[in-house]
Amino acid sequence: MNKTTKDVVVVGFALFAMFFGAGNLIFPPYLGVISGSSWLIGFVAFILADVGLALLAVTASAKCNGEVSKILGRSGKTLAIILGSAIMICLGPLLAIPRTAATTFEMGVHPLFNGFNPVLFSVIFFAITFVLTIKPSKVVDIIGQFLTPALLVALGVLIVKGIISPLGEINPSPMIDGVFAEGVKQGYQTMDALGAVALSTVVIRSLVNKGYTEENQKVKLTLKAGMVAALGLCLVYGGLTYLGATVSKIYGVDVSQTSLIVEMTASLLGQPGKIILALIVGLACLTTAIGLTSATAQYFEKITNGRLKYEVIVTVVCIFSAIVSNFGVSTIIQFSAPILDMIYPATVVLVIMTIFGKRIKNDNAFKGATYAALLISVLTVANSMGISIPLVTKLPFAPLGFNWIVPVLIGSLVGNFIPTSKDLSSADINRVG
């Protein structure tokens, strides 16, 4: 294996592990349970909303040299800063990073050491995260060379055992209506598309440190690493969703997502299964926490022009995340869902438009599409919280969870016909596009 191939594999493994965190472990089995015999439909939807969007985000990030501000920039400077900060705060100390510690405790530590103090655990978890994140040049190598192989072996043992010795029969009927839409929603919850926007910064910085400084090299190798990560995610998600489907006659829609994977692992592998699960959860969540902490620190250091130092931001993120993690997984997921539903579509729109940015000359097309996505997303969340807004349920593709697509197209077309002074120079557009 030559150096370039080895570097792609290491970086791809690291990207896989940074993607594969708390939600990636608990959402697919639950989706399998509620989907029953339609688990494959749910799985495909999950892949589209998770891996598909993440690959698009990696592509856009590679074209923008891993800079979040460039992906969001053509929506307008103010909105780009607001949306970028919202993404990084969600991925950082508010939601995603605390969820990694909470999941590790509930699924890995508590089943083995009942009575272990959760506050003490959060301190230990984020102390390790801090130590492994404080030197950004080492983050990808630590994860890709050492932590990911152990994670893959542990996951492989669980999935292969579940396929060879299924725990039960698959329920012939799904427990919910709209399996595809539910798969999309669960895919959103992993936050991988948002994570890809941020984590590409870490990946590209690692490639530069390895000697790949030319633009074409960085884009090409980042995309190859993204494909390695995507293949790994598809295999693992498929296995976990199938395992969930095999117990769809045993559990109902009200089953706890964390308890489900704990009980499945114990049934498949007995007492050693608890140890294996603890290893899986610990590695999956730690690698994600490391990657997202590094990405968050790099982002805020850059937009403040270095006034906020990387080391200071890492410290603040770790301390704040340790506090939030003690609220528990269910509370964090419940709190995160509406926020993600509001910012996710706008981010996806900007990612896709960035990929084709060279062909879109008018920045108002970006602005019109982004504001349309935000508007529909806010109205949809409000409707889901009891404020009746029938329009959002009647829009095209609403049953699939994509009611924002047509408004986005309209917003983009309208914006395209509004003259604008360029926010980016032609050189910038060509470079990004």
Sheet with most strands: none
The CATH homologous superfamily name of the largest domain equals Amino acid/polyamine transporter I
Look at the structure and give the mean pLDDT.
86
Task: Please estimate the helix content.
Answer: over 70%
One letter per element, helices H and strands E, the order comes to HHHHHHHHHHHHHHHHHH
Radius of gyration: 21 Å
The class by helix and strand makeup works out as mainly alpha
The oligomeric state is: single chain
Runs in which pLDDT lies below 50 for 5 or more consecutive residues are 423-433
Level-1 CATH class name of the largest domain: Mainly Alpha
What's the N-to-C terminus distance?
A: 32 Å
What is the fold named in CATH at topology level of the largest domain? Amino acid/polyamine transporter I
- The count of DSSP E runs of length 2 or more, i.e. the number of strands, is 0
Give the second-level CATH assignment, the architecture of the largest domain: Up-down Bundle
Number of helical regions: 18
Count of discrete domains? 2
- Report the β-strand fraction as a percent range: under 5%
Shape: globular
Write the layout of secondary structure elements.
Layout lengths: L2 H17 L2 H14 L3 H25 L4 H5 L4 H18 L1 H14 L8 H16 L5 H26 L14 H11 L2 H18 L5 H31 L11 H47 L6 H15 L4 H27 L7 H22 L6 H4 L10 H12 L9 H7 L1
Helix pairs in contact: 1-8, 1-10, 1-11, 1-12, 2-3, 2-9, 2-11, 2-12, 3-9, 3-10, 3-11, 3-14, 5-12, 5-14, 6-12, 6-13, 7-12, 7-13, 8-11, 8-12, 10-11, 10-12, 12-13, 14-15, 15-17
